[in-house]
Amino acid sequence: METLDQNLVSSWFDVQSVPQTFVHPPEKRPGNSIDVPPCKNIPVVDLGSRDRSHTIQQISKASQDFGFFQVFNHGVCKKLIDDIMSISKEFHKMPRKDKIIEGSKDPSGRCKFYTSSENYANEEVHYWRDALTHPAHSSENYMQFLPQKPTQYREVFKAYVDEVRNMGSMILEMLAEGLGLSKEFFNGGLSENPTLLSNHYPPCPDPTLTLGLTKHRDPSLITILLQDSEGLQVFKDGNWIGVEPISSGFVVNIGYVMQMISNSKFKGADHRVVTNSRAARTTIAYFIYPSNETLIEPANVLYNPPLYRSMKFTEFLQHFKSKAANDEEMSKVLSLSICAPNLRPTAGKWPGKDIDVPLCKNIPVVDLRGPDWSRTIEQISEAIQEFGFFQVINHGVSKKLIDDTMNVSKDFHAMPRKDKETESSKDPS
Ligand SMILES: O=C(O)CCC(=O)C(=O)O
Ligand SMILES: [Fe+2]
Predict the structure, then answer these.
(1) Where in the chain are the domains?
(2) Can you tell me the ipTM of this complex?
(3) Distance CA 116, CA 353 (A)
(4) Would you tell me the crossing angle of helices 78-93 and 153-178 to the nearest 10 degrees?
């Protein structure tokens, strides 16, 4: 059996041609779109601006239109950005045995070094990348499970995530405000599980055939990405557009979880990574994830009507793992399954809280065999004028027949679906 050691792209990338197992089918490979022009329209936002409400407007609009924006003046110091980038590059340059040892100290497997994707064994085609991932908590307890080589790794990581966490909170506060939610809305469970991912994409002999990462939408609340060079592309209005690196800036993108909570006001953006033949590319992603038990659902004020059903983050992840490759399938399982989409009332027609209105005691109940016939007629006439509705008792339909009819109807609806279909299609007309 092949080992991780042999499979790492960084161990053998120096080949003349792309191995077959990395060649994507024509409809998925990037072809000439490896060189799409970088998009000048993806908003670049000054997070340090004094005009906070303008900043909120900018990032909200970007989250609606693109699901992507870039930030500068974000509070993470330049030295830390340079240090985390250098230490990640050093990590990926180490001998493969060291990378494997350093990436497997966590017995729970949450710190992991892998190649292509976490699902290598089941992939039809592999991706041109190696990756190191681990929780982005800087707690002393967890430090022991992180790489000790390069020697500065733990120290740099800790300082970096402490600052990125602050930036993440600031962005989440602004996104919450932009959605009309309280500033603290995303604090706690919804953002409790940040995770770091250091991606390394070695140079590739033919970037038109392969991908660093396939088209996907992140399963996060938001993702904050540091990139050292071009390669990230966003799918917008049917075209791939490049996200140009800005010096000491971060790319922020909206993930599925934010899309669900914002009831699709903010859209997760599909993106992918292309490779290049010139130089290795390194990126460091900081994913803000909820804790497993946290409930994900459209926030109340945005119910209009709710497009997604509630689910725990663990359930969401299960769907994501089985359906991630197919956005349409994913949308189906996330959307309100209690109401099939074609049965869901349009805005203004859904009952909301009105499912529990008090029963009306005023709709007249008329005794059809009452002692005073003309009074009965009066009652019915009044009911028709006032309500257009009335109920009748003492009507001459026997109790037994009523019960029997109700019971056979219930029995019919309780039958297996196939039987109901067969039984209700005997009339050729
Ligand atoms: O490396 C990049 O540019 C993007 C990485 C990414 O999309 C991911 O890890 O989810
Ligand atoms: Fe991503």
Answers:
(1) 4-12+21-295, 358-409
(2) 0.99
(3) 48
(4) 120
Ligand 1 centroid from CA 48, angstroms: 25
Which protein residues have a CB closer than 5 Å to ligand 2 (ion)? 218
Task: Express each pLDDT in 89-101 by its tens digit.
Answer: 999 999 999 999 9
Protein residue with its CA nearest to atom 3 in ligand 1: 232
Amino acid at 31: G
Distance 50 CA to ligand 1 centre (A): 31
Q: Is the pLDDT of residue 40 over 60?
A: yes
Which class in CATH covers the domain with range 4-12+21-295?
mainly beta
In this structure, what token pair is assigned to residue 12? 């053998």
